[in-house]
Amino acid sequence: MNLSPITALSSLPQGLRDDLLSAFNEIVRNYRERRWEPAELNGGKLCEAVYTVIVGYVDGQYADRSSKPRNMVASCQALEQKTGAVRAVRIQIPRMLIALYEIRNNRGVGHAGGDVDPNHMDATAVLYMGKWLVAELVRVLHGITTEQATDLVDALIEREIPLIWTDGERKRVLKKGLTWKQKMLLMMLSERGQVGENDLFKWLEHSNAPRFRRDVLRPAHKENLIDFEEVSATIQLLPPGIAEAESIVHSL
Hints:
The protein has about 250 residues and is mainly alpha-helical. The chain has helices at about 15-30, 35-60, 70-80, 85-105, 120-140, 145-155, 180-190, 195-205, 210-220, 240-250; strands at about 165, 170-175, 195, 225-230, 235. Strand 1 and strand 2 form a beta hairpin. The longest helix is centred in the first third of the chain and has 24 residues, at about 35-60. The protein is elongated. It comes from Streptomyces fildesensis.
């Protein structure tokens, strides 16, 4: 199946799809900015959106927008009785929702008096549980593999990099004093999926394409920061590259 970020979750009503992806991207954005409490709080919004999706999947009719059940835990447990639904929808996703909602409500985030203050560890748990939940929805709704669903969810992540200017077509790195490698990683962080070598070269305004390939792209490929496919002339940011690019953002 040929899916793209635009067509992913296309079977959902637009409002419900927007609620789901907005909550997920808020978690990612706040986590990237080290804002632990907002990252954890948005876990609750994601739970409500995911719950609304799986209820619609089971019932055969989706609500236009996400909504909060009166009792999240009891409502998720009730889905286990829907024996006609696939196991992911009636057991695995609901149980993950219960765990995520517990962090949101009883770890010092949603209410005063929790066991711990908002922190990096809990926010990390929220981030990866959220990513798993969205990937499972993509997998179930589109009948694809876990690996394909995970890659697609990575492409759904909105990356707003304040050091990058764009008018929709052109792009520029605004920060001076960076190395070509740092500029390349920041530019790649602002993109989703693969980027054409010519586009990247044009955006960075390097003066020599063969030298840029030799001194920047190939070494970054060897360091596993990017995947540089020379035959197709495409570049894709790899997880170590994402981590290094985000460390550059945080250090500036």
